[in-house]
Hints:
Number of domains: 1
Largest sheet: 5 strands, parallel
Oligomer: single chain
Amino acid sequence: MINVLAVAGLPGSGKTTVARIIERRGYLYYSLGDVVRAEAERRGLTPDKTAVTMRLERGRKAVIYELLKSVKPGEKVVIDGIRSIEEVEALEEFLGTVFLIYVVASRKVRYQRLTGRGRSDDPLSFSQFLLRDLRELRFGLADLLSRADYIIVNETKSIEELEQEIGKVLLELR
Length: 174
């Protein structure tokens, strides 16, 4: 059985929704975005600047190393917001085999989701949205698509449809 599930995808793709469904199936939930937002608050910076700064200061694995301080080997965990192959490798190094789920949705759908979410780090304009996508892709997010063990196309799926799909995936992992 695989105990470590990682969820990746561009902002607004539905990563957190997928990860929270997995959490309800008995996995402990951890968010790399929460790590960045907490560090941003501590530093007095925006989450976007903090994500870049952490990686510039301590390398591409900086955020995952911070998160790993809270995770115990052997726990069933879902990690929300993986950004690079290096982060997956760090998880594998400390926790064992990782099953990577990549969530995709169109630019239009993702922008609509983000502007309706109400989080402080959501884009205020379409140009900000595009810049955020570029930043995320520079972290190595696109490279994860070829490493994905499972891809969810989350364009128009209801929560119930996502729950059914994820349930089937988790059954196969047993």
